[in-house]
Structures are given as structure tokens and as C-alpha cells.
């Protein structure tokens, strides 16, 4: 295993004679090549936060509005499933419209 690793490192050094730091500088993948923030970042940050906070507020308003409507129209109440369904009561309006 050591012989294989030595062969790999030797062949790698022959193909790429640069050190790791030099290679990183050539292909620009080091910390010095990263973009740095410029300009008024605080104003942009505050504008983005204001927009995100408005989305959070709108989602809470929508959530509580939906819950309020659900409780107002009894969407969350348990149906009385023990009582049998009387089809005459259910379709009484339809029979009256047909006649």
C-alpha cells in the first residue's frame, strides 16, 4: 500500500511541479481570490430584512385568519358519527325541487 501511495504522489509531482499554494494562486481558489464586500451593505441588508419580515407577518396573518375562519364555520368540530344518516332528510330538498 505504501508503494502505491508513493507511486501516486511521485507521478502527481511529476505532472504538477507547483506546490499546493502556487497551484491555488494560479487557478484562483484561495482565500485571497474571494470577492470582498463593497458599498453600502447595511442599507441592502436592512431592505432585505424588511421584506423578509413582511413575509413572516403576512404568513402569520394568513395562518390565524384561516384558523379563525375554520373555527367560525365549524370546520374543526367533530361530526356526530354515531347518529345514522336519514336519506329522506338529506334529499328532501332535492325531491321538492323535482316535483
Description of the structure:
The chain is an all-alpha fold. The chain folds into 2 domains: 34 residues, no CATH class; 41 residues. The protein has 5 helices and no strands. It starts with a helix and ends with a helix. The mean pLDDT is 80.
Short structural description:
66% of the residues lie in helices and 0% in strands. It contains five helices and no strands.
Number of strands: 0
Name the helix and strand elements from N-terminus to C-terminus, one letter apiece. HHHHH
Helix fraction by DSSP (H/I, runs of at least 4): 55-70%
Instruction: Report the portion of residues in β strands.
Output: under 5%
Q: Mean pLDDT, rounded to whole units?
A: 80
Task: Give the overall form.
Answer: elongated
CA-based gyration radius? 36 Å
Broad structural category: mainly alpha
How many domains make up the 3D coordinates?
2
Low-confidence stretches: none
Through-space gap between termini: 94 Å
Q: Largest sheet, described in full?
A: none
Please work out how many helical segments DSSP would assign.
5
Amino acid at each position: 500500500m505504501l508503494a502505491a501511495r508513493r507511486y501516486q504522489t511521485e507521478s502527481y509531482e511529476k505532472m504538477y511541479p507547483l506546490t499546493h499554494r502556487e497551484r491555488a494562486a494560479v487557478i484562483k481558489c484561495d482565500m485571497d481570490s474571494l470577492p470582498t464586500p463593497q458599498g453600502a451593505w447595511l442599507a441592502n441588508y436592512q431592505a432585505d430584512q424588511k421584506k423578509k419580515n413582511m413575509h413572516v407577518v403576512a404568513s402569520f396573518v394568513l395562518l390565524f385568519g384561516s384558523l379563525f375562519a375554520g373555527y367560525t364555520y365549524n370546520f374543526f368540530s367533530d361530526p356526530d358519527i354515531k347518529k345514522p344518516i336519514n336519506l329522506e332528510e338529506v334529499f328532501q330538498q332535492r325531491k321538492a325541487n323535482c316535483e
